[in-house]
Amino acid sequence: MAKIIRVQRAKTASVRSLPKKAAKAKPKVKAKAKPKSARPAKRTKAPKRKALSKPWTPAEVREVFERFRKANPEPRGELEHLNPFTLLVAVVLSAQATDAGVNRATRELFKVADTPQKMLELGEERLRDYIRTIGLYRTKARNVIALSQKLITDFGGEVPRTRAEIESLPGAGRKTANVVLNMAYGEHTMAVDTHVFRVGNRTALAPGKTPLEVELELERIIPPEFMLHAHHWLILHGRYTCLARRPRCEVCLINDLCRWPEKTV
Ligand code: SF4
């Protein structure tokens, strides 16, 4: 019996003398292979996404704009203005507002303030009274006063003619610059608002995730002879025909060319 106890102690002592890790180490047990059915399915490569629609050919793009031109040779923007300055102000005020709403406010405003100097003389508080029916009117009034000041200080009271300069004005972004350059100075720019963005994507004429992508694609594909009016044709098409909720495909000029899978004709 004493012999057995000695052997037992010796075994325990030999385990104690081992380094900690080794003492804890458990014998490796080979993991049981999972049955096939329990294994996660093998990853397969996602199939390449099919192009949603056939790209437009240059002839088709030309056809679209020839139809727009035939239907409305001299399209006009709907923001009322008297000169480049009032156009600039109207565009700044139109962010997240309708053209009709802006016009209702500016009709009276521009009678008293149609230059940067007169706008400064009017002052922010009185300007707010003219435009308080327009969304975000407090911020917009602040911007209009600040941009009027900057026009006088930096540009001799004139609306500048380059995108960078217009974008440097308070409240003016790329879309504002594009509208002013196009409508006031006849530049071939493409302002992408909500209507142009929708039409570009829906028809697949100029698909893009951002307004800038749509803008650049439209500029790339539209023949130069149509660029002066292309912005207005597309806006008017989106505003009156290719409506957001219920596009009027049955009366649409380009319904045979449009790639939208849900078009109703
Ligand atoms: S066919 Fe319909 S969806 Fe296509 S552009 Fe015309 S109105 Fe818009």
Fold and architecture overview:
It is a single chain. This protein is mainly α and 265 residues long. The chain is 55% helix and 0% strand. The chain contains twelve helices and no strands. It starts with a helix and ends in a 25-residue tail after the last helix. Iron/sulfur cluster (SF4) binds next to loops.
Write the layout of secondary structure elements.
Blueprint: H1 2-16, H2 20-24, H3 58-71, H4 84-93, H5 99-112, H6 116-131, H7 137-155, H8 163-167, H9 174-185, H10 194-202, H11 211-221, H12 224-240
Core attributes:
265 residues; mainly alpha; 12 helices; 0% strand; elongated; disordered N terminus; binds iron/sulfur cluster
Biggest beta sheet summary: none
Alpha-carbon distance between the termini? 101 Å
Share of β-strand residues:
under 5%
Would you count the extended β strands for me?
0
- Helix percent reads 55-70%
> What pattern of helices and strands is seen along the backbone?
HHHHHHHHHHHH
Short description:
This protein is an all-alpha fold and 265 residues long. It is built from twelve helices and no strands.
